[in-house]
Write a structure and sequence with these properties.
Elements (H helix, E strand, L loop, with lengths): L8 H8 L13 H8 L12 E5 L11 E6 L11 E5 L4 E2 L2 E7 L5 E8 L8 E6 L10 E5 L2 E5 L3 E6 L6 E6 L2 E14 L12 E16 L3 E12 L2 E13 L4 E9 L13 E12 L7 E6 L5 E5 L12 H8 L12 H4 L10 E8 L2 E7 L7 E6 L5 E6 L2 E7 L8 E6 L5 E9 L20 H11 L14 E11 L5 H12 L4 E3 L1 H6 L15 H23 L15 E2 L4 E2 L15 H12 L2 H16 L12 E2 L11 E2 H4 L5 H7 L2 H8 L7 H4 L19 E4 L2 H16 L4 H16 L9 E5 L4 E2 L18 H11 L3 H14 L3 H8 L13 H11 L2 H13 L13 E3 L8 E3 L5 H18 L6
Antiparallel strand pairs: 1-7, 1-28, 2-6, 3-4, 3-7, 5-6, 8-9, 9-10, 10-11, 11-12, 12-13, 12-17, 13-14, 14-15, 15-16, 16-27, 17-26, 18-19, 18-23, 20-21, 20-25, 21-22, 23-24, 24-27, 25-26, 29-30, 31-32, 33-34, 34-35, 36-37
Helix pairs in contact: 1-8, 8-22, 9-10, 9-22, 15-16, 15-17, 16-18, 18-20, 20-21, 20-22, 21-22
Length: 921
């Protein structure tokens, strides 16, 4: 969703080529061609080296380093194996390695690797078993008293363990570049409605409750800081901040997470409306005012390039060499050497100490400046989409700073204050104080839906599952990423452009599709892109069309904003030529039917950067915003709706770790790891909330810790995803997680009808389902489409349990069977079902496992002729839209729905991987 200019061929073609077959758009797709290069050598041996390349062109650039994940085939690498990285021409690259997952036999399943020194200038690397090279400058971590000190060999950071200063100081070569890194929160007690305003603001400051070093080098160090924002006796809005340092780097990265725990339901002065949310540093200003420099990035490579006291454009000329030096950020010669008509009047030239760039929409920013507080602002420019990057300092050094996804997660803002004084203050506003306050109140008054019966009626008209007090944001979270450079002098224009680019798109190393596929991770349900036959190429064209269309719709429909960026819409309204953003459960998708998995499997098989970045943004969103991390419903997610937290269906199927696993293992992202770890005990949420409370036919059911009704589909797959992840990561609850996996697998398999039984009564104390004596049939078309297919494929490969495998294969065999076949097997048919195209991958899985040609044939029949996007009736084209039918011109494919896209994508990818050699035609 984040635009990458050299990768935009498809999107531009999609907009320009309305009503044009998509295969035409594939011409010149440089990104896909580059990705295809990574699919060579698909027949590598298990212990062969892994080829590592950059996700995008450009290499490391101005970034500090890169961390990447690599999977290994079962048994290929022992648990204590060391690894070495080298460039394609054999030059060693220092490497730090740690395990992120293990196979059941104890061998490595996933490893994470951090590299920094030696990455510059190379485009390809080889990862091999062996002794890693040591960095010339190791990053070191030391602790004493109430502080943690990290030294990269170039910069030194002192981090607080208590108090309000997260980063007490950043020094370079003995010079302090920045100090007092802290968090700022502005709260407003009510909302000004109408044409009057009287709301008061108050400031809260981040207060640390604890800090610890999670990694201590030699290549990469990570420090985690937790706390709350506090004013007086009140602390709220918990934060978790991680700081990342690489050996030899002059920069560090910050990953900043807040969890909303405010109350917006109260009356006047009692609400918690965020007016501003920011990260602030102080920057010592040592140089003369004419040697102090301001750099603020605009759109693309654009920059505001100024000095605090400008000596260009004056009535009197100090000299061309002097003017040139100031523009380029170099220390000026002694003013005694200038034209003295300028030197003697320096005190009459204003100093401009304050600058503000505000991005209040995805499409426009404004930039202004003033001399100092108490005096008026003057406009200094504006544009479309700012990079979210700036610099303040002087010839003796200064701080570069940047906020990733700046315009995508508007409203955002950059402030520089006091640059004319002894100390400048930099604030990166994640929520701009110039925007309207953050309003997370529920969007309607309930409309009289006070009973379950009334709420079900509402569900039948707007598809919204409403319930009073359930549409709360209490417990949702948001993560932001920031970068900082401690510069020894004002950087050159070229360096600043490179730094801004590293903020926008952090360089990411990655293994290619062939190496990812040979490891047989994620159930072995993907294989590298293959266009070797016309039939396969046709499916690949369709997959490309669907991704490009959804990515283009995110831009065309402006699916951006602090809480919205990363999600996509659920269903289209053909009459309005608009997605149903305002119609109940048809609005934001919130992972409905697994678009997250579709995107990640699409990336794993293609290596395409545009797919990775789209999936990355979705993972950041759905794992944070669509799930609860505090409060009564912690561990549950919210069903699709007009607001991400609005619907009353709070379920495992949304919060599931299944959707987070690929991003975690590919990047070793600690925040996503935290989210998954927190889900290990989420079976306890069924005590708090019965997901079937409105439709349960048993009026006497009450949640009982020894008899919790938990479904074998959307419920169990979410639990299994968390347990599997904890087990293979060897987390603190790994033993419990493994036991839960095995006990639930055993007792699902022991049911009279296995998965077809639908649900069972689960005992929290034993981790087992009660085995029913009476066979029943309870099958839903939703059961398998929220990660159950993927979980079962993984678990069958990991745990030798023939009964469980048979139970799953039975479900796979009979979902798409005829009603007569279902009845002959189970005594009754499965009733009215949907999503046959998506479930074709169950036929493919069973067919491949059993070598059953009839099932394989049915898989392709259901895929090409079922519901969803059937071959015979789907017109794989877009239609041009113009005013007055729509707000902005663009394209539409009114037949596209996100449900169908996700299921078509997963079925196509998995069918091709499992039985692609049996594809007709």
């Amino acid at each position: 969703m984040s635009p990458i200019p050299r990768r935009n061929v498809l999107k531009a073609a999609a907009v320009a080529g309305a009503a044009t077959p998509f295969s035409w758009l594939l011409a010149g797709n440089a990104q896909q061609a580059a990705a295809a290069d990574k699919t060579d050598k698909a027949d590598k041996a298990a212990d062969d080296p892994v080829d590592i390349t950059w996700l995008e062109d450009g290499g490391l650039g101005a970034a500090a380093g890169s961390t990447f994940g690599v999977p290994w085939p079962k048994g290929a690498q022992r648990a204590d194996q060391k690894f070495a990285l080298a460039t394609a021409d054999g030059k060693d690259v220092p490497l730090q390695t740690w395990a992120t997952a293990y196979w059941p036999d104890g061998s490595l399943k996933w490893t994470a690797h951090a590299a920094a020194e030696g990455l510059d200038g190379a485009t390809a690397y080889r990862l091999t078993a062996g002794e890693p090279a040591a960095p010339a400058e190791k990053v070191t971590v030391s602790e004493s008293g109430g502080k943690i000190t990290v030294d990269t060999g170039v910069i030194k950071a002192v981090i607080g363990k208590d108090g309000g200063k997260l980063v007490r100081s950043i020094t370079r070569g003995g010079t302090e570049i920045a100090r007092d890194g802290r968090l700022v929160l502005l709260r407003q007690g009510d909302i000004d409605d109408g044409d009057h305003g009287s709301a008061k603001w108050e400031r809260f400051d981040g207060e640390i409750s604890g800090a610890k070093a999670e990694q201590k080098g030699p290549v990469r160090a990570v420090v985690r800081i937790d706390g709350k924002h506090r004013k007086g006796g009140r602390g709220w809005l918990p934060f978790s901040v991680r700081l990342y340092f690489y050996a030899g780097a002059d920069s560090f990265r910050m990953v900043h997470t807040i969890t909303f725990d405010g109350d917006q339901t109260g009356g006047h002065e009692s609400g918690d409306f965020i007016r501003g949310l920011g990260v602030r540093f102080s920057v010592p200003m040592r140089d003369e005012a004419y040697d102090r420099h301001i750099r603020i990035a605009g759109e693309g490579k654009g920059f505001l390039t100024e000095a605090v006291k400008g000596i260009t454009g004056l009535r009197r000329d100090p000299g061309a060499a002097v003017r040139k030096a100031q523009f380029e950020g170099e220390k000026l010669p002694d003013p005694a050497t200038w034209d003295q008509r300028v030197t003697t009047r320096l005190h009459l030239i204003p100093t401009w100490g304050d600058y503000t760039l505000s991005q209040l929409s995805a499409d426009g920013f404004t930039l202004r400046k003033r001399t100092k507080p108490g005096h008026g602002w003057i406009p200094a420019g504006g544009g479309g989409r700012a990079s979210g990057f700036g610099y303040v300092g002087g010839a003796s050094g200064g701080l570069s700073f940047g906020l990733r996804d700046f315009w995508e997660k508007f409203p955002a803002q950059l402030d520089i204050r006091g640059a004319a004084g002894d100390e400048a203050e930099v604030t990166l506003w994640l929520w701009s104080p110039e925007a309207q306050p953050m309003d997370l109140r529920f969007y309607h008054d309930g409309m009289g839906q006070d009973t379950y019966a009334e709420q079900l009626e509402g569900l039948n008209i707007t598809y919204e599952d409403y319930e009073p007090k359930f549409g709360t944001p209490y417990g949702i979270a948001r993560t932001s990423e920031l970068m900082f450079w401690a510069n020894g002098a004002t950087p050159s224009a070229e360096t600043l452009v490179a730094q801004a680019a590293a903020v926008r798109t952090p360089p990411q190393l990655a293994a290619g599709p062939a190496d990812l596929a040979r490891a047989k991770v994620f159930g072995g349900l993907f294989a590298p892109v293959d266009r070797s036959t016309a039939a396969k190429a046709k499916i690949e064209d369709h997959l490309d069309f669907l991704f490009t269309y959804h990515k283009g719709q995110a831009e065309q429909r402006r699916w951006y904003g602090f809480w919205d960026y990363g999600d996509i819409m659920h269903t289209y309204d053909e009459d309005r030529h608009q997605w149903r953003y305002d119609v109940g459960g048809y609005a934001w998708d919130n992972s409905e039917l697994s678009p997250d998995l579709w995107l990640w499997y699409a990336y794993l098989r293609s290596g395409r950067a545009d797919i990775f970045r789209f999936a990355e943004a979705m993972t950041r969103h759905t794992g944070e915003v669509d799930a609860y991390h505090l409060g009564t419903w912690a561990g549950l997610g919210t069903r699709h709706g007009v607001q991400h937290f609005a619907d009353s269906a709070k379920q495992q199927r949304i919060s599931t770790a299944v959707y987070r696993r690929p991003y975690y293992y590919l990047t070793a992202d600690e925040r996503v790891g935290d989210i998954m770890s927190a889900l290990v005990d989420s079976d306890e949420t069924f005590l708090v909330l019965d997901p079937l409370r409105k439709v349960r036919t048993d009026p006497d059911y009450e949640p009982d810790p020894h008899a919790l009704s938990i479904g074998f589909g959307t419920d169990w797959s979410g639990l299994a995803g968390a347990w599997l992840t904890e087990w293979e990561r060897r987390g603190p609850k790994a033993e419990k997680a493994e036991a839960r996996l095995r006990s639930t697998m055993e007792t699902i398999a022991a049911q009279p009808n296995g998965f077809v039984q639908g649900s069972g009564l689960y005992d929290l104390s034993t981790g087992k389902y009660a085995v029913e004596t009476e066979a029943k049939v309870s099958v839903s078309h939703l059961s398998a489409v929220f990660g159950l297919v993927e979980m079962c494929a993984e678990l069958i490969d990991l745990i030798d349990m023939p009964e469980f495998k048979e139970a799953w294969l039975d479900y796979c065999r009979y979902f798409n069977a005829t009603k007569a076949e279902q009845k002959a097997r189970y005594g009754t048919d499965f009733g009215s079902l949907l999503l046959f195209q998506g479930h074709s991958r169950l036929d493919a899985y069973a067919g491949a496992q059993l070598k059953d040609e009839a099932l394989i044939k049915r898989a392709w029949q259901k895929f090409s002729g079922g519901d969803g996007y059937p071959d015979a009736t789907t017109d794989w084209r877009t239609v041009k839209l113009e005013g007055p039918d729509v707000l902005e011109p663009g394209v539409e494919a009114a037949w596209v729905s996100t449900n169908s896209t996700a299921q078509y994508g997963l079925a196509a990818i998995q069918n091709l991987a499992l039985v692609g050699d049996k594809l007709p035609g």
